């Protein structure tokens, strides 16, 4: 078990890029599960993105990855799991507490490409800010 007094999010990852074979299946899957998490999906010409996640079609694909999305509460984790299963995901760990640290509540699914996608709620905590906001100073 990890013993930390303070957690930092949004410092390490700038973006994650997935290259997928079945772009349309992934677009439908991520549009549905990200809507549950209140994260908008933005579509471009041959790609989509949501915050730090960028997805495009191609060969070779990126292979299996693990991505964990933050959820606001345990109910959102349960809705994420149900929505993922209803939109082409496969169960890879039903919603529940995990032994990673006290209060770690998560669910795991495999997306249409076999990536291990998690929704996690770390338990009640005070955040210093709802998100990192970057602005262009030019």
Keywords for this entry:
138 residues; globular; four-stranded mixed sheet; single chain; alpha/beta; 2 helices
Walk me through the topology.
Layout: E1 16-20, H1 23-36, E2 42-44, E3 47-50, E4 53-57, E5 66-70, H2 74-86, E6 90-97, E7 105-110, E8 116-121
Parallel strand pairs: 1-4, 5-8
Antiparallel strand pairs: 2-3, 3-4, 6-7, 7-8
Helix pairs in contact: 1-2
Structure description:
The chain has 138 residues and is of the alpha/beta class. The chain is 20% helix and 30% strand. The chain contains 2 helices and 8 strands; from the N terminus they run βαββββαβββ. The strands form 2 sheets. Strands 1-4-3-2 form a 4-stranded mixed beta sheet, covered by helices on one side. It has a 4-stranded mixed beta sheet with strand order 5-8-7-6, with helices on one face. A hairpin with a 7-residue loop joins β6 and β7 (105-110). α1 runs antiparallel to α2.
For the residues shown, what is the average pLDDT?
Answer: 89
Q: What are the low-pLDDT stretches, counting only 5+ consecutive residues below 50?
A: none
Class computed from helices, strands and strand pairing = alpha/beta
Q: Would you count the extended β strands for me? A: 8
Return the string of H and E elements: EHEEEEHEEE
The separation of the N and C termini measures 45 Å
Major sheet strand order: 1-4-3-2
Strand content: 25-35%
Number of helices: 2
Summarize the amount of helix as a percent range: 10-25%
């Amino acid at each position: 078990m990890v013993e930390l007094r303070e957690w930092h999010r949004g410092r390490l990852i700038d973006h994650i890029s997935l290259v997928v074979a079945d772009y349309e299946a992934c677009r439908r899957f991520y549009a549905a599960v990200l809507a549950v998490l209140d994260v908008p999906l933005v579509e471009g010409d041959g790609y989509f993105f949501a915050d730090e996640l960028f997805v495009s079609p191609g060969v070779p694909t990126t292979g299996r990855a693990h991505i964990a999305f933050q959820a606001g509460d345990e109910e959102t984790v349960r809705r994420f799991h149900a929505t993922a299963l209803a939109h082409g995901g496969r169960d890879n760990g039903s919603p529940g507490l995990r032994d990673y640290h006290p209060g770690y509540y998560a669910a795991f699914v495999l997306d249409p490409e076999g990536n291990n996608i998690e929704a996690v709620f770390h338990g009640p905590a005070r955040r210093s800010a709802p998100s990192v906001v970057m602005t262009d100073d030019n």
